[in-house]
Request: fold
Amino acid sequence: MPDSEVSTIDLSTLDVASAAEKGAVLQLTHPVSGDELGISIRLAGADSDLYQKAQRAGVNKRISKRRRTPLTPEELVEESYTLLAKISLGWTGVVLDGEALPFSFDNARMLYKRFPWIREQVDQFTADRGNFLQDRLTRSAKR
Reply:
């Protein structure tokens, strides 16, 4: 393609880290039917400083224990509950056992532990950069 036809892009429209820091909203879907449940969880993305700090905290914890044995699968899953709870920024519509469940780190960790399908949706959502750039891409396309 000749130089005169090369289009340029403002890289600020692809600032995934900044967008991931602000967070994006996951609409939980039914684990079988895929129908939306009316439950929204705001999450920081995998490129956010919050996520990176939480991930490093787990590594530092292992280093400080000077573990000579590898982590068990159970320990890895426990770490994932903590990491995902740390990057959870809030939620709406969460009802558990007939009562509204207020957002907190401990409640998020419990929810992800009790409902593996929620943890799976949260994990997949935070890893997908596209979930955090949608707003920027829409604004960029309108220009």
About this structure: Strands lie at 24-29, 36-43, 88-92, 95-96, 99-100. Residues 49-64 form the longest helix (16 residues). Confidence is low (pLDDT under 50) at residues 136-143. The radius of gyration is 18 Å.
